[in-house]
Design goal:
By secondary structure, the chain is mostly helical. It has one domain. It is 76% helix and 0% strand. It has 3 helices and no strands. The relative contact order is 0.04.
């Protein structure tokens, strides 16, 4: 009878630990979803403010530093994309794996 009691007690503890772990994981997942939504909303808001400032609908003076920083970062991203496009993006498999070359032994 002691073995059955021990197994039952252990199974109960494992079950409680599993429930607690699932609860924590669900809470953490919901928190991350909310954080992503918040970041997305802030990004949309920032994009809208940037557009309105560029169009002259809101005063730029208060946001001049932030707008300049956004524009500089966008320019950096575009320059990096252009540089990456200009580079040969094909992988030179023969250099990495000489066995794939035409003169490789069969």
């Amino acid at each position: 009878m002691s073995l059955i009691t021990s197994v039952t007690t252990t199974a109960g503890r494992v079950s409680q630990d599993l429930r607690a772990s699932l609860h924590r994981a669900r809470a953490e997942g919901e928190k991350r979803v909310l954080e992503r939504r918040h970041r997305r909303a802030l990004a949309v808001l920032g994009e809208r403010v940037h557009t309105l400032a560029r169009e002259g609908d809101i005063p730029v003076a208060a946001l001049a530093d932030q707008i300049a920083e956004v524009d500089a970062r966008r320019a950096d991203v575009e320059a990096a994309r252009a540089a990456r496009r200009d580079e040969d993006t094909g992988h030179d498999a023969v250099v990495a794996f000489p066995v794939l070359g035409d003169d490789a032994p069969a």
